[in-house]
Amino acid sequence: MSKRTVNILLSWLGTKDIENMLDGEKNASISTLATNSQTPFDKIVILSNHQHKYWEKFENFVKKRMATIGRPHQDIQVHKANIASPIDYESIHQVTALWINKLSEEADSLSINLTSGTPAMTTLSVLIGKGKSNVQFLQASPNNELLHVDIPIDFGQEYVKSASKNIANTATSEPKVEQAFSALTAKSVQMQNVVNKAKKIAASEVPALILGETGTGKELMATAIHKGSLRANKPLKVINCGAFAENLVDSTLFGHKKGAFTGAEKDHPGLFEQADGGTLFLDEVGELTPEIQVKLLRALQQGEINCLGDTQTTNVDVRVIAATHKDLSKLVEEGKFREDLFYRLAVGIIQMPALRERIEDITVIVNQLVEQINKVGSKHPDYTSKNISEKGMKFILSQPWQGNIRELWSTLNRAFLWSDSQTITENDLSNAMINRAKNESFTDVTLSYDDKIDITQLVDKYKKAYVLAALKASGNVKSHAAQMLNLKDHQTLSNWMKRLNIKHEK
Predict the structure, then answer these.
(1) Which helix (H) or strand (E) holds 44?
(2) pLDDT of 40 above 50
(3) 3-state secondary structure 102-133
(4) In the chain, what are the domain boundaries?
(5) Among 305, 370, 439, 465, which residue has the least CB neighbours within 10 Å?
(6) pLDDT on residue 243
(7) Which class does domain 189-352 fall in?
(8) CATH 3.40.50.10770 given to domain 7-152
(9) What pLDDT score does 449 carry?
(10) Backbone angles phi, psi at 269, to 5 degrees
(11) pTM for this model (two decimals)
(12) What Pfam families does this protein's entry cite (predicted)?
């Protein structure tokens, strides 16, 4: 004799279920699923934390419906659900998990109603139920038709994919190191001076020009200046001037009218109009063409712009902050950047120091970046939180970081990704560094007839500079420094050091 299969329906008690019962004993989701299911339910479990006075009446209503059509009707009951509120995920999770685990053990087939209850109840029913092989999902249409719900998603796999994607996106985005640029965390004298100057510029209305190498945080400084200004509650708009084609820069900055060019299907306000009353940050301003420079100068001088396809001028009130890693004064000399525009922008000048020039700040910045990496990684089920060893921190402090914070950020992400250890060592960091091809171009040397130089002294000067740089980068490990300088062995390096009067620090 074959074993009888047990089919169970689990549902939350919905407000509509009660209302329809009271309104002439009409069907709603629970009674619809119970009566229309192809396979009768041997047991119906209903969870609720409200309208207690109607529970017994609702039980009898469903039992009557089942008895009328000859279906099992003895085991139909509303159970009290101890939840904090209908939208409290934690308590709903506890109740839902308890009942799904219990009933899936009892049943050959457990059906879960997704129509009744709050979105929180439905969401947790799906997440927990998907982990059971004998669970199926049902819902009722507005016309009281039974619908089978297919959810072909592996939530565990999707969670891992989402967490992995988040780690990847964070690693390739800009690091969030706002605190490293504030007065509270700028330990170095260089950064304290920069921040103090930035505060004075922020309080004024003058245009600002932020200079510095790639990755020094020029956009971050522009944002801080905007937030510290009287325009803080107005828009801050940002554009990388080197990221757009010439024709798009004009439209992006100054806007265009419908029909101004092929594809201009409607009027488009440019960033100057969008930033009216606020601030416009022009990153890599040195990339602007002479034509755009003329229009930018007019916007700065007269507060007027012309959008493409329009003969009328528009008045705007915008503070401009520009930034570049290029030498603008040199571009002016070469005729590539307008001198009058340069002096219009270069009122509040800020020179962002390179990371290697602010050693006192590096440890603070590293700790912030490590915290970010661990916070993002913690969302991944296989991630282990990591820290950096003392020697690893010394290695970081010894590097030149030509890409500045951006290079440091990328290096830390690679080291944390590749290492299986909880402690990131100097070896891990060294392996995560990207070897840069050195520029070995040599400027032609010209000498006049009576010129005299000490060639030996000149050569020794360069040798000493490179030996010291190699020792610093290698953490004073002579064998590695010798490899960096392409010397035969560490003894050869020692001989050089002796002749160049370089003392070896252990």
Answers:
(1) strand 43-48
(2) yes
(3) HHHHHCCEEEEECCCCCHHHHHHHHHHHCCCC
(4) 7-152, 189-352
(5) 439
(6) 83
(7) alpha beta
(8) yes
(9) 54
(10) -70, 135
(11) 0.67
(12) AAA_lid_14, Sigma54_activat
